[in-house]
Amino acid sequence: MSEPLRIAVVVEGPTDSIVLEAIVRSLLAGAEFEFDTLQPAEDSAVFGANFRLHGPGWGGVYHWSRQATEKGDGSLSSFSKLSPSKWDLLIIHVDADVADKTYASTGIQSPPQNDLPCAKPCPPSHHTTDALRKVLLGWLGEESCPPQTILCTPSKTMDAWVLTAIFPDNAIFQQQNWECHPDPAGQLKALPQGQRFSKKIRDYRERNQEISQAWPRVSGTLTEAARFQEEFLHAIHVDRH
């Protein structure tokens, strides 16, 4: 019997971690796995006291990435504490709306490159997410994605995936340009009172199973969801062979 797949994630916020865990459960089709959230984290026990804690949001992902890169002498792939002995897969998430931001908007000074904003006309969504992935790789000190590392860049935010999963009959969430909607979370607030839910950890955990079961439909509808699925399954194949 093979050991459970060990998966670590770096995400913008705790609800993103819940969604990714639900997606992984669907993709692994019942296989056991271990799931650790490295960022945002409540303590630095994983990497030791010298590894600073960072707050939520894409700025937290940026600072985590830069610190891991510095500890790795210039690249994530050289960071020994992220070696395969600890985790089989590392997922790093930023929403595609980060492509519209500036570093100054979240208080970041002296970034390695002045490469934000990098948004492109949408559709197609992948023009923006391709550009954002290059930015993210720059944070990690990499030119290409390191082995067993998966980038997750929902367009425009993870909310688009969640709403597609939970409301399969909602016409707005089924539109072809849904991945280009600038504020999916705003559509959550626009739902009838009885259908709304908050972006609190409790509410997302209550919908964890629903998101997991709906994932095949989400990945069959949204292009960035399909890309994440393809890259995740490829990474598993490489890891297990």
Describe this structure in words.
With 241 residues, this protein is α/β, with parallel strands linked by helices. It has 8 helices and 4 strands, in the order E-H-E-H-E-H-E-H-H-H-H-H. It has a 4-stranded parallel sheet with strand order 2-1-3-4. Helix 3 links the parallel strand 3 and strand 4. The radius of gyration is 17 Å and the shape is globular. The model has no long low-confidence stretch (mean pLDDT 91).
- The arrangement of helices and strands along the chain is EHEHEHEHHHHH
SS element count, helices: 8
Q: How far apart, in Å, are the first and last alpha carbons?
A: 15 Å
Topology, number of strands: 4
**What spatial order of strands do you see in the largest sheet?**
2-1-3-4
Shape: globular
Strand percent estimate: 5-15%
* Average pLDDT metric: 91
Radius of gyration, in angstroms, nearest whole number: 17 Å
Q: What low-confidence regions span 5 or more consecutive residues with pLDDT below 50?
A: none
Helix content range: 25-40%
Class by SSE composition:
alpha/beta
Major beta-sheet overview: 4 strands, parallel
